[in-house]
Please model this.
Amino acid sequence: MAYSNDNDSGPFANGNFNGIDSAFTNVQEIAAHEHNVLYKAMRYGRWYLLKGIAPRYNADEAHRQMLIKEFDTMMKLMHPGIVQAVSLDDVPNVGMCIVMEYIEGKTLEQWLEQTDDGKKCRAMFMQILDAVEYIHQQGVVHRDLKPSNIMISRVGNQVKIIDFGFADADSNSIFKHAAGTQGYISPEQAAGGEPDVRNDIYSLGAILEKMIPPVSRRYRKVMNCCKGPIDKRYNSVAQLRDAMSHINAIRNWKLFAAVMALLATVSVMLFLLIGNHKTAQSSQAPTQSLPADTAFHISNQSDTLTPTATPQEIQEKKETETIEPPLATATPTPSDSRQQAINQAIEEGERKLKAFFPSKELKQNLDTLSDPEYLDLELVYGGFDFINSYTESLKPRFSDKEISVIYQSLVLTNGRIIQDINKRIDGIK
Model:
């Protein structure tokens, strides 16, 4: 298609490009609230979300200023976990409205109704923390965090925090008032206190309670730290995220330890079964077989007899011939001295392994620790580090197969030690 150079004609004159309209079309109302109305509309072949003022407040200057304030706040935020504002337009039949990306998906509230996978919920909550931490870094407090204000995209399951109508920042000097939703608003915020990032941390605690039922004492403690008095809460989302990361790491470690213990048990059982099978074979009487050359020699004994020998003499000679077959080679088995050396190496390793934890001042303090879930994970992983180091030191004295037996035995011992530690931690009130 050839385009005219005339600025007053052609497809660019009215904003149309091959039938793609620059004006908003297919405007559809999708939700109406007391002060605002949400619309879905198309422009340039793409869907957008329009947030306008409710018709009865369309001429009210205060409501117009609040919409402008919300747009100004959103334009400061550019993050994959936050709905992106595009422009502030005056749309026919809608009025002044914020134009933002349209999110194909569902709210966190709807998502939770269809999801009971704890692992997915934990991963989704960490996404939320990442987005809220960014909001706070820009000097903004959302003040209305709740499941219905968090979208989950259909493609990629990406968190998108929406609705910054109540958001506030130090730079704002107008419209500072109590705002939030019952069940998620902090007490000091409901009382009209100054915006504080800890207001949002309170809301995050309430959201966490919805996403991860507090069956775990560790998660319950995090929730309580979010929803307690403001001076007892986490001071930042970073602190909350670190606490969650630590708990998730402990969960992953417990799963890893359980799998390793299972694999070690199976490996030892297989080794013992194979060893017993070989021992049983070696204990059986060996089957004596005649070498081919010996059989050939016997069958031709008649050739060595004197010609005067009678057939009866030949037969007697064959029957009385004594054959000494070679001894059968038996499967080698560990001698008593080697087995004793293996047992001694296992006993020494277990003794050192059990001493490893008290040397880190862990076991003797378990009954008095006030915050056991924040133990350094190096205390746990250190057990495997010790096993690897110890078995490596045995290489000059033991074969690879013997070291494998020692290693698997120590892994089982390490698993029992960890189980004991976890039981004692869980028993601390």
